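Changelog-linked ticket: 9D3 example.
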Amino acid sequence: MWFGVVTLFPEMLAAVTACGVTGRACRNGLIEVHAYNPRDFARDKFRTVDDKPYGGGPGMLMKVQPLSDAIATARAAAPSGTRIVCLSPQGRRLDHSLVTEFHSWGAMILVAGRYEGIDERILESEVDLEVSVGDFVVSGGELPAMCIIDAVSRMVPGVLGNIENAQGDTFAQGLLHYPQYTRPESIGGRRVPEVLMSGDHARIREWRLMMALGRTWERRPDLLGGRELSAEERDLLQRYQAQRQVKL
Ligand code: 9D3
């Protein structure tokens, strides 16, 4: 998977290129992350990368010429036909299905804005899709771009080990995770649920599925809305709900 990132802060990309699962994927050549910095394309002696908005108002926009030269350079380095995604609070909300689509592209250019944003004509002529990571404000598009790189990279065969397989991931299955416990057996008198100490793998599997269904029902009922439940799952969720009523 090939990623080009247009950013004024290429150093931020070290968080994905040097660390953890994505760092290993870079070193193994399973993913490539290339930065294109508009500042490298600025032509004045101050290397200006911001400009004033027509119509006035507070804040600055990305200066057009350095930005479009950086995008053109990324496009020239990318496989032909590579799509361009701009990170923006005005964009389509990122979810697992969009991550799957980006993975199917094989290559993408991510444009991370700073300041108050980007000239609308650049978005119209250069950008295929605007994407947001949620209804909260961050200081620029880099962290959202890195979320996409991380999430898409996890779908690339060989990036994950056997243990943390992409298919086993919560949102791939459409349920929240069951509660997890490690040593010690007791923390301040609160013990690990008995079933997990029993060694009965059928009961453990059932308990975990029940807890995953129950938590999803309590915390993210929207996720159950778009999901068919099997007879076993309906039964387990009803048991969870019945137990819950006893406790409340
Ligand atoms: C005057 C209002 N501006 C500042 C509060 C609007 C604004 C401009 C630029 C708000 C955020 C940003 C920078 N954010 C992004 O580039 C961004 C983002 C985000 O802030 N939240 C969620 N997803 C994304 S994707 C890119």
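Closing comment: Example verified and attached. The pocket of 9D3 is lined by residues 87-89, 113, 116-117, 132-134, 136-138, 140-141, 144 (CB under 6 Å). The mean pLDDT is 96.
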